[in-house]
Fold Thiamine-phosphate synthase.
Amino acid sequence: MKEAGYYDESITNRVVVMVEPYSQQKQIQQVVYRILDANLDRTREGLRIIEEWCRFGLNSAQLAGECKYLRQELVIWHTEELRAARDTPGDPGTDLSHPQEEQRSSIKALLQANFCRVEEALRVLEEYGKLYHPKMGQACKQMRYRVYSLETNLMGYQRHQLLRRSRLYLVTSPSESLLSTVEAALKGGLTLLQYRDKDADDTVRLELATKLRQLCHTYGALFMINDRVDLALAVDADGVHLGQQDMPIAVARQLLGPQRLIGRSTTNADEMQKAIAEGADYIGVGPVYETPTKVGKAAAGLEYVSYAAQNSSVPWFAIGGIDANNINDVIDAGAERVAVVRSLMQAEQPTLVTQYLLSQLNRIKPET
Ligand SMILES: Cc1ncc(COP(=O)(O)OP(=O)(O)O)c(N)n1
Ligand SMILES: Cc1ncsc1CCOP(=O)(O)O
Ligand SMILES: [Mg+2]
């Protein structure tokens, strides 16, 4: 790219020679080339790691295609002269690694680390690229913004896909053994958790929600917060569950953005239609049976479960009084997903109960 570069003879003579002797300019040029070469490789490698997950983990041709497009855009800039400047044996950075790079706690952590790597490398390319070609800085800047969008879309897609795959939803109740019970359920295959505590102080809520979010994400499960949009944002939860008396969905959506999940409780057909029209990502359907967990709330019954089975266009969870003894009645009424509090929070062996409930739900063939 000599014809338009900063080191173009004509520009060099007029601009740089005044500052650095010619031999030093050449040395600096080589350094810039090495930086560009290394960061072009780094960006491409990071994108490839992300692309593999989009393709094989998410089966998303659209997201994988975006990664591929970005990789190919980079190749245009990876010229022979930049590759020729490579000096791997002389690079003091090849042996440097951080302990966190040796271990990733989850796919989410792996993806985030690689997005970070790609975004940083693109920023380097943007700055040093300006010394190489007038258009390189701008091109890398645009790519960096596309990577930010890709990151947001991928994380949102990931959440929605996991939501659709989740058949069992544990809604917590206050417990001395909250963390160990939740972990036991996660070990049994739970992929969706809601932190619900109607009475605790915010300091306690904040501490527990942070720990639960970490735990859920370590096991690759979604973490939701009951009622409180502010808390969901504060602990970087995957979303919020809102009842009919809680914040309107439109307001929550504005605060949470398009990628986080919003669930809405519904007790009848009107509430269901309204929740879907307002953009709920999933709905709670119940209480199926009267339950001491929600004192004074009348049962909506199995008829409403059947109505949801026929009419809901979004994932829905039957909730209220569901346990190992009656889950098959709820399934027979049309439920493919259920949410429980006591069945798991009060279980002596939460892992086994989770496995049992999931085994019953997994007998139903997945929706198309
Ligand atoms: C999955 C799910 N469905 C329903 C509810 C109940 O929400 P809400 O009506 O707001 O009542 P509280 O849980 O806030 O007491 C839920 N939490 N989760
Ligand atoms: C929060 C909530 N919303 C409708 S029923 C219910 C509680 C369900 O609790 P349990 O599973 O213990 O009956
Ligand atoms: Mg509520």
Summary: The beta strands are 168-171, 192-195, 222-226, 239-242, 261-266, 282-285, 316-319, 338-340. Confidence is low (pLDDT under 50) at residues 2-17. DSSP finds 16 helices and eight strands in the chain. The chain has two domains: 22-160, 166-364.
